[in-house]
Amino acid sequence: MKYLYALLIFVPIAIAAELMHASPIVIFALSAAAIVPLSGILGTATEELAGHTGPTIGGLMNATLGNFAELVIASLALRAGLIDLVKASITGSILGNLLLVLGAAQLAGGLKYKSQKINPNLAGLSSTLLVVAVLGLVMPAVFQAAHPDPLRVATVRMSGWVAALLMLGYLLSLLYSMVTHKAAFNEGGEVAHHDVKPHWSLRKAIIVLVAAAVTIGVLSEFLVGSTEEAVRSLGMSEFFVGLILIPIIGNAAEHSSAVLMAMKNRMDLAVGIAVGSSIQVALLIAPILVFLGYAFGQPMDLAFTVMEVASVAVAVAVASSVMKDSESNWLEGAFLLIAYAAVGVAFFFY
Prior knowledge:
- About 80% of the residues lie in helices and about 0% in strands.
- By secondary structure, it is mainly alpha-helical.
- It has one domain (about 1-350).
């Protein structure tokens, strides 16, 4: 993770570029580069704070702040009316975590260890939640296709109800995995992830977390403000940027953590980071954005395109397939990466 911190040099450079009214492409690139290490620092501060609050509250904080940078970027894009970009970023984050991150983790771990075990309870719960996530995407899309709604008023209304139900499901999954059945999800033979003694004081952890969060918010404002012009200059579609680039920018540090955990033969944590992030985006982040749409006067529904729904459904099927035997190897990781590349190529020409 330390090599990411070298990118912090881009924070003042990005701010200077915005103040000097540099070209949108320059501002977009610098802001993106600066957000990557900040999301890593935010994650570290959250981990340190979790060490002071105990495992239950700490786990909830990690789950809540895990996708903070991406949520901020999507929220600002939604406020700016870039609804297609926001919806594409939701799809892209789910696909990226299930195929790219999990694939990279399995490949890296598999090259070092012949076979790695995955907690069957974790694999089973993850697969179930992913199916619920697909249901949450499929039903609004089917409703929109089958119900004449040119202004999408009814679709937005029903998406609000679906969003509330998805959030309820996510909260219940946290209660199950962190309270009532917590022991079933601990790493076998290792210290629980949140029982590690913190290295920072409580005050330092809070100050760093707040500072990183505020800076991410400022840079996300720059990023979103330059997106439309940058996309036109680069010759890429707004849809492709939201699907591929935004998720990678917002979760780069988290992606690195999954790979590093796999290389330490801690596949439960690697799977928890990769698959857990996809579940969080589908069951928590997407519903939050639906409700923020109401607040911003930019109503957003959960009726994704057929291409997006099909891609997520296939990704869930593939990810569930590689986890069902509760083992991991390098070949499964390679196939997940190939699947992600195929999806990326398809959406590039979409």
